[in-house]
Amino acid sequence: MEYLELEQAQKRVEELRAVIEKNNRLYYDQDAPELEDFEYDTLTRELKELEAQFPQLVTPNSPTQHVGGTPSGRFAKVTHAVKMESLLDAFSFDELRDFDRRVREAGVEPEYVVEIKIDGLSCSLEYENGTLVRASTRGDGVVGEDVTANVKAIRKIPKQLKDAPEFLEVRGEVYMPHEAFQHLCAEQELQGAAPFKNPRNAAAGSLRQKDSKITGSRGLSIFIFNVQQIRGKELTTHAESLDYLKSLGLPVSPRYHVVHNIEDAIAEIEQIGQNRSKLDFDMDGAVIKVNAFAQRDLMGSTNKFPRWAIAFKYPPEVKETTLRSIEVAVGRTGVLTPTACFDPVFLAGTTVARATLHNEDFIRQFGLCIGDTIQVRKAGDIIPEVIGVTRHEEGAQPYEMPTVCPSCGAPVVHLEDEAALRCVNPECPAQALRNIIHFASRDAMDIDGLGTAVATQLVDKGLVHSAADLYTLTLEQLLTLEKFKEKSATNLLQAIAHSRENNLDKLLFGFGIRNIGDKAAALLAEHFGSLEAIREATEEQISEIDGFGGVMAQSVTEFFAKDGTTDLVHRLADAGLNMQWKGEPKGDKLAGKTLVVTGTLETLSRNEAEALIVKNGGKASGSVSKKTAYVVAGTAAGSKLTKAQALGVPVLTEAEFLALLNEEPKPET
């Protein structure tokens, strides 16, 4: 690593902690990480190296010093009797050899067990006299969530063990097999819901459902990989414990081998990697563990990792295939997006035959020609992407993007400072379809049951040309759609009718105005109070909204200046849609002040705390600066707290924050 001065290192450490902590919250608490696994691991490694180089920068709240996420308020909290630790990662065989050297330097002549690392949600199961009495998630490693009712609904998890010891706590990984994942995604598409991005997110989201019947219907399974506690049975090695658990009827790791040296362990890891594409579940690497429990006790753990185990992370799997064609789709804002169509390859658990090519510049970068041999991988084992060309066909001509829209035939244009080509025809049917899908989406008008498949049928049959047409649909028209019966048609009509009452910000976001996301839509609605006032506002007036720039203001005025928008608004008004902001009047206790919420609060979620800030006239920000009035800090506050202290920004506890606003603490649920 390049040497850095202390001040530079501190700045980089704060940046890394902020990114890693955000992704940890998304991964553990919301089951929706933003970073790819390899990118996350690289950033974490950089942070560890900086903290090793500058020990004075290490804090107890650093993400290198704790495990996992925070328990949500949805489930009861469970304190783990035995900490559910994470594992140190290795990305090369030399790092595995370094691990072996450290083990031997601790006075241990090890025998190792090598096993597959499952990509799912870590879970503890507790059995008393063979009866499953409690199940809990890992949470932060010390405190997790009680998910007993949901786990009992999973058919493949034994509720009763034969010839079991007096007490047994085991740890495993709840996962979703590929077949179950594909079935779930197909169901979600039919229902108009956004499908999970990968089996890991699907498993986590399914296990943490409020309704255990939903959990039970999702085809979840588990692999047990460790004994946490046991009474009434003596076990001396890890391999012996897995064999014993298997004899009790528990599903243990599908592949585990005892080896006698690190080179044999590496050979086994290579073998696992070669067979990963044959598995019916996602794996997150391979694990090497010291086999003998007595030797493990001798080695102990750091405050985060056991010293007797290490996880090997495989690089993303890359396959070669032949590019057969390039399809160009038109998005809701008219952007033309090219997609590579190639001979099917099996990658990270699924067969893929398509991958985005992003834009014209990306195609030119590789000089793509039809017939090329291309390299494909799944970014983060999720999203297929083209990463290179290994062979061009002789005499092949580089692919050229179309000069007219593939949907409506109108000329396409390059707007200033954009890499994308764009169709600017307001009557383009492809844009109409995408706009309707967006209008009905969860963050917009939230019309349950109106997803891509249904919207496509409505547009193809000529029943819907714009969002306003949704509010004139009849039962008879919906019954002409494929797979629609009277009940599903009635449910959709009710969902459409219910959307009339949505608040103004939902409607504004549903319009799909360029550069205006859901938060900007809420600011716009709250500031002006009505759609009519927004339509009459000038760019200068819109720019006065805190957080709005000139580009955003221009996007709003340009959208409402279009003839098509005027017609759409009039038709929606005639259909009875709410066009007024129904928010509560703001207080002034925090008027003109910017606050930052960081860490885990005792009774409020981050969103709830930020809503209180806005309600009292303040601004909730995601970053700390000299202009920050207060930082509201909970547990595991991390780099934002450190920066606030360095800048002399006042720090409030949750209780002090609520007292400032004269608010009562939120009762425990």
TrEMBL record:
<feature type="binding site">
    <location>
        <position position="408"/>
    </location>
    <ligand>
        <name>Zn(2+)</name>
    </ligand>
</feature>
<comment type="similarity">
    <text>Belongs to the NAD-dependent DNA ligase family. LigA subfamily.</text>
</comment>
<feature type="binding site">
    <location>
        <position position="138"/>
    </location>
    <ligand>
        <name>NAD(+)</name>
    </ligand>
</feature>
<feature type="binding site">
    <location>
        <position position="173"/>
    </location>
    <ligand>
        <name>NAD(+)</name>
    </ligand>
</feature>
<protein>
    <recommendedName>
        <fullName>DNA ligase</fullName>
        <ecNumber>6.5.1.2</ecNumber>
    </recommendedName>
</protein>
<dbReference type="GO" id="GO:0006260">
    <property type="term" value="P:DNA replication"/>
</dbReference>
<dbReference type="InterPro" id="IPR018239">
    <property type="entry name" value="DNA_ligase_AS"/>
</dbReference>
<dbReference type="InterPro" id="IPR013840">
    <property type="entry name" value="DNAligase_N"/>
</dbReference>
<dbReference type="GO" id="GO:0003677">
    <property type="term" value="F:DNA binding"/>
</dbReference>
<feature type="binding site">
    <location>
        <position position="423"/>
    </location>
    <ligand>
        <name>Zn(2+)</name>
    </ligand>
</feature>
<dbReference type="InterPro" id="IPR001679">
    <property type="entry name" value="DNA_ligase"/>
</dbReference>
<dbReference type="Pfam" id="PF03120">
    <property type="entry name" value="OB_DNA_ligase"/>
</dbReference>
<dbReference type="InterPro" id="IPR004149">
    <property type="entry name" value="Znf_DNAligase_C4"/>
</dbReference>
<feature type="binding site">
    <location>
        <position position="405"/>
    </location>
    <ligand>
        <name>Zn(2+)</name>
    </ligand>
</feature>
<keyword id="KW-0436">Ligase</keyword>
<dbReference type="InterPro" id="IPR012340">
    <property type="entry name" value="NA-bd_OB-fold"/>
</dbReference>
<keyword id="KW-0460">Magnesium</keyword>
<dbReference type="InterPro" id="IPR041663">
    <property type="entry name" value="DisA/LigA_HHH"/>
</dbReference>
<keyword id="KW-0235">DNA replication</keyword>
<dbReference type="GO" id="GO:0003911">
    <property type="term" value="F:DNA ligase (NAD+) activity"/>
</dbReference>
<feature type="domain" description="BRCT">
    <location>
        <begin position="585"/>
        <end position="654"/>
    </location>
</feature>
<dbReference type="GO" id="GO:0006281">
    <property type="term" value="P:DNA repair"/>
</dbReference>
<dbReference type="InterPro" id="IPR001357">
    <property type="entry name" value="BRCT_dom"/>
</dbReference>
<feature type="binding site">
    <location>
        <position position="289"/>
    </location>
    <ligand>
        <name>NAD(+)</name>
    </ligand>
</feature>
<keyword id="KW-0479">Metal-binding</keyword>
<feature type="binding site">
    <location>
        <position position="428"/>
    </location>
    <ligand>
        <name>Zn(2+)</name>
    </ligand>
</feature>
<dbReference type="InterPro" id="IPR033136">
    <property type="entry name" value="DNA_ligase_CS"/>
</dbReference>
<comment type="function">
    <text>DNA ligase that catalyzes the formation of phosphodiester linkages between 5'-phosphoryl and 3'-hydroxyl groups in double-stranded DNA using NAD as a coenzyme and as the energy source for the reaction. It is essential for DNA replication and repair of damaged DNA.</text>
</comment>
<keyword id="KW-0227">DNA damage</keyword>
<dbReference type="GO" id="GO:0046872">
    <property type="term" value="F:metal ion binding"/>
</dbReference>
<keyword id="KW-0234">DNA repair</keyword>
<keyword id="KW-0464">Manganese</keyword>
<dbReference type="InterPro" id="IPR010994">
    <property type="entry name" value="RuvA_2-like"/>
</dbReference>
<feature type="binding site">
    <location>
        <begin position="37"/>
        <end position="41"/>
    </location>
    <ligand>
        <name>NAD(+)</name>
    </ligand>
</feature>
<dbReference type="Pfam" id="PF03119">
    <property type="entry name" value="DNA_ligase_ZBD"/>
</dbReference>
<dbReference type="InterPro" id="IPR013839">
    <property type="entry name" value="DNAligase_adenylation"/>
</dbReference>
<feature type="binding site">
    <location>
        <position position="313"/>
    </location>
    <ligand>
        <name>NAD(+)</name>
    </ligand>
</feature>
<dbReference type="InterPro" id="IPR036420">
    <property type="entry name" value="BRCT_dom_sf"/>
</dbReference>
<keyword id="KW-0520">NAD</keyword>
<feature type="active site" description="N6-AMP-lysine intermediate">
    <location>
        <position position="117"/>
    </location>
</feature>
<dbReference type="Pfam" id="PF00533">
    <property type="entry name" value="BRCT"/>
</dbReference>
<dbReference type="Pfam" id="PF14520">
    <property type="entry name" value="HHH_5"/>
</dbReference>
